[in-house]
Amino acid sequence: MTKTYIEEKPNNTGGRWYVPVMMLGLVVLVACTVKESFISPSGSTEDYFRSREVERRVDSLMRLLTLEEKIGQLCMYTSHHDVTGPSTPIYTEELIREGKVGAMFNAFTASHNAHLQRIAVEESPRGIPILFGYDVIHGFKTIFPINLAMSCSWDTILVEQVARVSAMEATASGVKWAFSPMCDISRDPRWGRVSEGSGEDYLLCGKMGAAMVRGYQGEDMSSDTSLVACVKHFAGYGAVQAGRDYHTVDITDRTLRGVYLPAYKAALDAGAGSVMTAFNEVDGCPATASYYLMTDILRDQWGFGGLVVSDYTAVMELLHHGTATDSLSATAQAVNAGVNIDMESDFYRQYLRRAVEYGYVSEKQVDRMCRDVLRIKFYAGLFDNPYQNTDVTREKTAHQKDSYMQLSRRVARESCVLLENEGMALPLDTALNIAVIGPLADSRDDLLGSWRAAGDTLGVLSILDAMKERFPHISYAKGCPMMEDDTTGFARAREIATTADVVLMVCGESWQWTGEAASVTDISLPSIQDKLLQVVRGVNRNVVMILLNGRPLELTDVIPYTNAILEAWYPGSNGARGVVDIISGDYNPSGRLTMSFPMRVGQVPVHYDMKNTGRPYTPDNPRQKYLSRYLFTPNSPLYPFGYGLSYTSYEYSDVSVEEDHYLTGEPIRITAKVKNTGAVAGWETAQLYVRDVIGSVTRPVRELKAWQKVYLAPGEEREILFTLTEKDLSFYRADMTWGIEEGRYDVWVGGDSNASEGDYFYIKE
Ligand code: BGC
Asked: Is residue 347 part of a domain?
């Protein structure tokens, strides 16, 4: 079995309901000539006419709308939740009735959304249906591992399935729009939101984002099982200074375009219908007021024809950023930048009309903004079937089906990364006496991570529960709280550890320490957990640790006290069973890190594709002091990007580029052999890295260009083939044009970003 990603095409072009104008080679002013920028879900001529039909319907509706009603389509408000379920304030219902609400979020359940939709469709002046959005991030009711975890599977097909299941569940409960995928490149583990993305590499992030878009939107966005995807947070949110959430982003245009934008673009190329702005500024301009981002790049250069929604109150926040003098100018800045929908600021409703009257915003711009919203609503099938997601009978049987829970388990085990396994401490024999210890061992809540949508802990097994299912001889002690300095549980932990064959410690972070507004300056285990580990190790030399957490941690001081460490992240609704599949050896771990784990937090940001510098550090260089290095810590991370152990071992050989020289445009074929040299079968992720040795601008020391997942039986050897094209080697050159350059390229193929087996080739123009 081989899964190939390098030439992966969307498996249904149906998800592509428009094609970027640039790809068609047309020069189009997108917002006002959308006809040309849209093709059909399947791309056939017939469907192209169908899209013209959509434009015609948008036109005729636009002719009926007053300015007030157009503005209404640009306003989005939240619903709330109380113990009895979802609730929407009476005054919001009143606004819907007056036609002043185009979209809602956090409203779900078929019956509640049916109620709101009925008001919009049957009682508002034009009867325009509401678009219901929700943070469906890693599942809706069945919760899958957090996104950072899922990316460690390096399996886009699996991730697409997760998004499909999420769409099946969410659409049964009134939701039509997922605020996902998050395509922010994450290189600073202090930032809590690294848990929501796919790590540090833009190729991998983009492929994961595209897979999610295909899964959410399915064959046809108007289907009652399809969600409209929303690519966020545009742009550069992952580059917040010092990992502090909402902080300033100050990166060069080269870094923005070369590193941060490609992942959003890949997800948009898969056909995503919407984009969410970022909270941060980029180059002194808040993203939500950035014409450069929302219009120049997104619409004019990329040909995006969908809608842009602000992040939560981001329009109001322009006041705090200090680019807007008052609410009126904040409103004008966002609308003029190209932000269609105001999420929760309530500024468009209050001030947009006046901004038009004062001439700060043209009515034509309001029209453009409104057209984009209506267009998506047409494509989403809302006008033809506004109640498509409100069937209470369907909802009753739509959630947590057996197959979904099985998928949750499967994704969990494919997302876990085995970090250490001294002396094959794992897997554990089921006959052993195991002491399960740690503050997270019996937690159900933490397994779901942040953004758990409609998920809950009903039926969720803790790691302890799942261990008991598989291993007959289990004892348990919590040992300590998550963070408080309380050692009263140590005695019991020591007692059961003393008599056990092996101790399984479950430590890490509380889920509330990850996600939005959860930045930290210390990424090591809380000291109480460290102390507990030392106490346990003092009485039992066989310690295996399972980590539940949402970011790379500093584990340097933990390693000496453990024999094995399994990074299990927050594995989701049926994740504990997936983790135990690995502990028991029923599944051979195959996850690979998508973010480097620093040796010390002071190395951050540390990522594999750094630059060489003018004074690169090598241990054999005699000028040791005056090199780019730290005095007391190595430059390299503890665990590099792409790293992960297995219960078997793999060996790479014969990495070979077919030719020495290529002309620009010729496909480059690279082969390598990979062999399973151990005793059990397993999935290996063969990764291809390339270095452009000399460039018109400095180039990273290596960049991931492709990967393949290969299943190998013990002793089995396979040859794998990668084919690179000009596009794969292109970048923003000194003059900011995008393309390839002549010269030497080094390549490596291996099991992580430190791969040592390699070859090289030259390109000539
Ligand atoms: C987050 C977004 C999210 C939105 C709606 C914001 O605070 O940044 O990612 O989609 O809230 O809940």
From this structure: no
Residues 128-183 pLDDT 10s: 999 999 999 999 999 999 999 999 999 999 999 999 999 999 999 999 999 999 99
pLDDT beyond 50 at 503: yes
**How many Å apart are CA 383 and CA 381, to the nearest integer?**
6
418 and 496 belong to one structural domain: yes
Domains in the chain, number: 2
Residue nearest to atom 6 of ligand 1 (CA): 312
Catalytic residue among 311, 372, 446, 728: 311
> Any catalytic annotation for residue 311?
yes
CA–CA separation, 481 and 504 (whole Å)? 17
Whether residues 425 and 551 fall in one domain? yes
Which strands sit side by side in the sheet containing 434-437, from one edge to the other?
417-421, 564-567, 543-548, 502-508, 434-437, 474-477
Which of 276, 279, 450, 514 has most ligand 1 atoms within 8 Å of its beta carbon, as the pocket-test mutant? 276
- Regarding whether 545 and 463 lie in a shared domain, the answer is yes
Residue 733 maps to a domain: yes
Q: What single string gives the DSSP state of each residue in 70-109?
A: HHHTTEEEE-EEETTEEE--HHHHHHHHTT--SEEES--S
- Judge if 465 and 548 occupy the same domain: yes
- The residue among 548, 579, 603 that closes a domain is 603
pLDDT at 5 over 50: no
User: Among the atoms of ligand 1, which is closest to the Cα of residue 182?
Assistant: 9
665: confidence class by pLDDT, cuts 50, 70, 90: very high
Does residue 701 lie in a domain region? Answer: yes
- What's the pTM? 0.94
Q: Is 135 in the pocket of ligand 1 (CB under 6 A)?
A: yes
Q: Would the CB of 317 count as within 6 Å of ligand 1?
A: no
Q: Is 90 exceeded by the pLDDT of residue 38?
A: no
Tokens of 545: 């640790």
User: Cβ-count burial of 371 within 10 angstroms (0-12 exposed, 13-18 middle, 19+ buried)?
Assistant: buried
Task: Determine if ligand 1 sits within 6 Å of the CB of residue 342.
Answer: no
Residues 382, 226: Cα–Cα separation, whole Å = 12
If asked whether residues 430 and 511 sit together in one domain, one would say: yes
Chosen domain end from 540, 575, 603: 603
Q: Is the pLDDT of residue 323 over 60?
A: yes
pLDDT at 82: 74
Do residues 588 and 656 both lie within one domain?
A: no
Q: Output the CA 5–ligand 1 centroid distance in Å.
A: 30
Residue 90 lies in a domain: no
Range of the domain at 738: 650-764
pLDDT of residue 9: 29
Sheet of 668-676: strands edge to edge?
650-657, 668-676, 717-724
* CA separation for the pair 731, 740 (Å, rounded): 7
How confident is the model over 253-271, as a mean pLDDT? 97
Q: Kindly state if the Cβ of 169 falls inside 6 Å of ligand 1.
A: no
Specify the CATH number for the domain of residue 557.
3.40.50.1700
| pLDDT the model gives residue 2 | 41
Looking at the structure, tell me whether residues 441 and 567 fall in a common domain.
Answer: yes
Pocket of ligand 1 contains residue 184 by CB under 6 Å: no
Residue 492 sits in the same domain as residue 588: yes
From 179, 280, 519, the mutation candidate for ligand 1 (largest count of ligand atoms within 8 A of CB) is: 179
Per-residue pLDDT reduced to its tens digit, 169-216: 999 999 999 999 999 999 999 999 999 999 999 999 999 999 999 999
Q: Is the CB of 245 under 6 A from ligand 1?
A: no
User: What's the token pair of residue 620?
Assistant: 């054999």
